[in-house]
């Protein structure tokens, strides 16, 4: 398994978003902007995050309704820096161009709390990080976290079209100079080295094939990296991929409580953040909706089965999933499911988010 004010920043009625003030907009490259964000003090704890996670922003859509876009956090939770997401323009992309054209310091945006599982279990292990273009954002968060709070060594291979496309060039250089024994950056510029195809990537990655790998970028690059690493003998469970996706529905409105017909239905026991609760689970209601309707602060982002933010593990009982685009056979064998797509097959189900 491996895939973002002057008023109080409390969720608006019927939604689970919080307001974030933009304190700075940084032009990273001609087509990439970073938003430095600050939550209000009363919701700051909701934005504690793990390296590699993302925020889901609520943006005004072209038809007047809201649209959701997920952007990875480039900031590290271990350095004391403020929250920062980085957005690169996509040709024909509505969300990225709207953000780059309209948002400025002093504006506010609404966001769901951080989510995502593209994050290492330990900061003490040696890691291989591979990024392409704006895929550097979660990878940079992981690298900074390892260097600041762990003992691991980090090698980053960063692919771009040319030198002008390199996001965070100065920050990467400064990190390499500050940690010469632990942080190595390998730049891959298509203008000089050609496309990063599997055989050439394999040659470059030979010394690091035994490390756990985190890969984020365009699909063809991630496919090429995975093929190269598998050729070198890297097991699939040690290769983690983060996927970019656009959300088609409104993920922000909290679901209305779902009543079971004639008092029927089952129940689910959930362990989350060290607390255990048992709540009703009406038939036909996705697990996530049942949890949210009962007041359980379960994590989620897309609600479409296209990300891994709502992943949990079934301890007892059985469920079925209507859709799954991110969990592989190993994840399923270990009991992991997507809460937004899970329906009950037994009267009682026990799940955990730990």
Automatic annotation (TrEMBL):
<dbReference type="InterPro" id="IPR017938">
    <property type="entry name" value="Riboflavin_synthase-like_b-brl"/>
</dbReference>
<keyword id="KW-0479">Metal-binding</keyword>
<dbReference type="InterPro" id="IPR008333">
    <property type="entry name" value="Cbr1-like_FAD-bd_dom"/>
</dbReference>
<dbReference type="Pfam" id="PF00111">
    <property type="entry name" value="Fer2"/>
</dbReference>
<dbReference type="InterPro" id="IPR036010">
    <property type="entry name" value="2Fe-2S_ferredoxin-like_sf"/>
</dbReference>
<keyword id="KW-0560">Oxidoreductase</keyword>
<dbReference type="InterPro" id="IPR001709">
    <property type="entry name" value="Flavoprot_Pyr_Nucl_cyt_Rdtase"/>
</dbReference>
<dbReference type="InterPro" id="IPR017927">
    <property type="entry name" value="FAD-bd_FR_type"/>
</dbReference>
<keyword id="KW-0001">2Fe-2S</keyword>
<dbReference type="InterPro" id="IPR039261">
    <property type="entry name" value="FNR_nucleotide-bd"/>
</dbReference>
<dbReference type="InterPro" id="IPR006058">
    <property type="entry name" value="2Fe2S_fd_BS"/>
</dbReference>
<feature type="domain" description="FAD-binding FR-type">
    <location>
        <begin position="15"/>
        <end position="121"/>
    </location>
</feature>
<keyword id="KW-0285">Flavoprotein</keyword>
<dbReference type="Pfam" id="PF00175">
    <property type="entry name" value="NAD_binding_1"/>
</dbReference>
<dbReference type="InterPro" id="IPR001433">
    <property type="entry name" value="OxRdtase_FAD/NAD-bd"/>
</dbReference>
<keyword id="KW-0408">Iron</keyword>
<feature type="domain" description="2Fe-2S ferredoxin-type">
    <location>
        <begin position="266"/>
        <end position="354"/>
    </location>
</feature>
<dbReference type="Pfam" id="PF00970">
    <property type="entry name" value="FAD_binding_6"/>
</dbReference>
<dbReference type="InterPro" id="IPR001041">
    <property type="entry name" value="2Fe-2S_ferredoxin-type"/>
</dbReference>
<keyword id="KW-0411">Iron-sulfur</keyword>
<protein>
    <submittedName>
        <fullName>Oxidoreductase</fullName>
    </submittedName>
</protein>
<dbReference type="InterPro" id="IPR012675">
    <property type="entry name" value="Beta-grasp_dom_sf"/>
</dbReference>
<dbReference type="InterPro" id="IPR050415">
    <property type="entry name" value="MRET"/>
</dbReference>
<keyword id="KW-0274">FAD</keyword>
């Amino acid at each position: 398994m491996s895939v973002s004010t002057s008023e109080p920043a409390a969720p608006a009625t019927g939604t689970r978003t919080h307001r974030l003030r933009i304190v700075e907009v940084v032009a990273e490259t001609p087509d990439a902007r970073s938003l430095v964000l600050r939550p209000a003090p009363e919701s700051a704890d909701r934005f504690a995050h793990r390296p590699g996670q993302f925020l889901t922003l609520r943006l005004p859509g072209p038809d007047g309704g809201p649209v959701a876009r997920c952007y990875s956090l480039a900031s590290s939770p271990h350095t004391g820096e403020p929250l920062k997401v980085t957005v690169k323009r996509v040709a024909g992309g509505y969300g990225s161009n709207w953000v780059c054209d309209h948002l400025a310091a002093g504006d506010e945006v609404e966001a769901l709390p951080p989510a995502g599982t593209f994050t290492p279990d330990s900061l003490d292990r040696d890691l291989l990080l591979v990024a392409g273009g704006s895929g550097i954002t979660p990878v940079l968060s992981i690298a900074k976290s390892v260097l600041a709070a762990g003992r691991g060594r980090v090698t980053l291979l960063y692919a771009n079209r040319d030198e002008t496309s390199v996001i965070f060039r100065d920050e990467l250089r400064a990190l390499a100079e500050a940690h010469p024994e632990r942080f190595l950056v390998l730049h891959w510029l298509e203008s000089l080295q050609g496309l990063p195809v599997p055989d050439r990537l394999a040659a470059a990655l030979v010394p690091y094939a035994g490390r756990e790998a985190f890969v984020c970028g365009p699909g063809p690059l991630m496919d090429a990296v995975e093929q190269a690493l598998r050729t070198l003998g890297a097991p699939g469970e040690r290769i983690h991929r983060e996927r970019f996706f656009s959300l088609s529905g409104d993920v922000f409105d909290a679901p209305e409580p779902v009543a079971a017909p004639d008092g029927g239905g089952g129940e689910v026991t959930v362990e989350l953040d060290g607390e255990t609760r048992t709540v009703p689970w009406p038939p036909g209601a996705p697990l996530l909706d049942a949890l949210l309707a009962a007041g359980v602060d379960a994590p989620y982002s897309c609600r479409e089965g296209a990300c891994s933010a709502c992943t949990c593990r079934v301890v007892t009982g059985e469920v079925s999933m209507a859709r799954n685009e991110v969990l592989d056979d190993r994840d399923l064998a270990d009991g992991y499911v997507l809460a937004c797509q899970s329906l009950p097959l037994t009267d009682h189900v026990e799940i955990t988010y730990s």
